[in-house]
Write a structure and sequence with these properties.
The protein is an alpha/beta fold. It is built from twelve helices and 13 strands.
């Protein structure tokens, strides 16, 4: 429940309103120009290759780094104020816990900083570390440490969660448990912005994808919209005894490869290519046609941006 003195501030539609944000470190430009608006209740995945500016952007959202130019408002507050009063919670991918404190002591210490904190045991349970409450920090595994960081992020009872590579060091089961917990918060109206290298996480859990490269946002939309930006389709068929070079020579084929008796063909004109394949190879069977996945879209869009940067420089 939001403190009364904040209710008039955070009732607006925008959780994040970042305009013209840029940040450099010496001669290195980390974020060149970012305009980002996130509505309340959205779950947004921030994707991009290493050096795209994702972590710097998240650090600015958390008030850890100040932009060189531009402005950031979160529920109408600047990031430092939003964090201070507990409406924004953050989870970073690195940083040590106080090694000799127990998990419950650490989360209790964080809860004491905020006026509207969750009950500590509720935060521990929501983060899946209730059974670790008595364990000291230096005895936690990497995945357990990440879940404790999550408990620290949510104990302030935030309206916005900012997460940087939150599932680093987690095994597959822990990752699924973590995202189920995030979905429970999102279903309750919490806004979530997260960066990840696990594209499957973004595809499965995000309402919206923001793709960064070269310090800029190069694509922004639902996972379906991002995939549609790439016109490549994949044709799979059982087709033994046909040379890959022969398939690659068909007009409209971008690439062809073989996996045992299965051939995989990529093309932007899949309907035309498929008709040619069927006319030429009547023995083809078990045919499937798929649109580009998020990984293909990610690779093609970021590669196009990298090529554009090379041309400009």
């Amino acid at each position: 429940m939001t403190p009364m003195f904040l209710s008039s501030v955070i009732n607006g539609d925008l959780a994040i309103d970042a305009v013209g944000v840029a940040k450099s470190f010496g001669s290195v430009t980390a974020v060149e120009q970012v305009d980002l608006r996130v509505r309340r209740g959205e779950t947004v995945a921030l994707l991009g290759p290493n050096g795209a500016g994702k972590s710097t952007t998240l650090d600015m959202l958390l008030g850890l780094v100040q932009p060189d130019r531009g402005s950031i408002a979160e529920f109408g507050l600047n990031p430092n104020s939003a964090v201070d009063v507990g409406v924004v919670g953050g989870m970073l991918q690195s940083g040590s816990l106080v090694r000799d404190l127990t998990v419950r002591e650490i989360v209790t210490m964080i809860a004491s900083l905020y006026p509207n904190a969750l009950a500590v045991d509720d935060a521990l349970a929501a983060a899946g570390v209730g059974d670790l409450r008595g364990r000291r920090a230096h005895r936690l595994s990497g995945g357990e440490t990440q879940r404790v960081r999550f408990a620290m992020a949510i104990v302030s009872n935030p309206d916005l969660l900012v997460l940087d590579e939150p599932t680093v060091a987690m095994d597959v089961e822990s990752r699924h448990e973590f995202w189920r917990a995030i979905r429970r918060f999102a279903d309750g109206g919490t806004t979530v912005v997260f960066a990840t290298h696990h594209l499957d996480e973004a595809d499965a859990w995000a309402d919206r994808i923001v793709l960064m490269a070269g310090g800029r946002i190069i694509a922004d939309g639902s996972t379906t919209e991002i995939k549609a930006r790439v016109g490549v389709r994949t044709i799979r068929a059982t087709l033994p005894a046909v040379a890959v070079d022969e398939l690659a020579a068909i007009e409209g084929v971008h690439h062809a490869e073989r996996h045992g008796d299965t051939v995989v063909i990529t093309s932007t004109t899949s309907d035309i290519v498929l008709r040619k394949v069927l006319a030429r190879y009547r023995e083809a069977r078990d045919i499937e046609v798929h649109g580009a996945g998020l990984e293909e879209a990610f690779l093609e869009l970021t590669a196009a941006t990298a090529a554009s940067v090379e041309v400009r420089t």
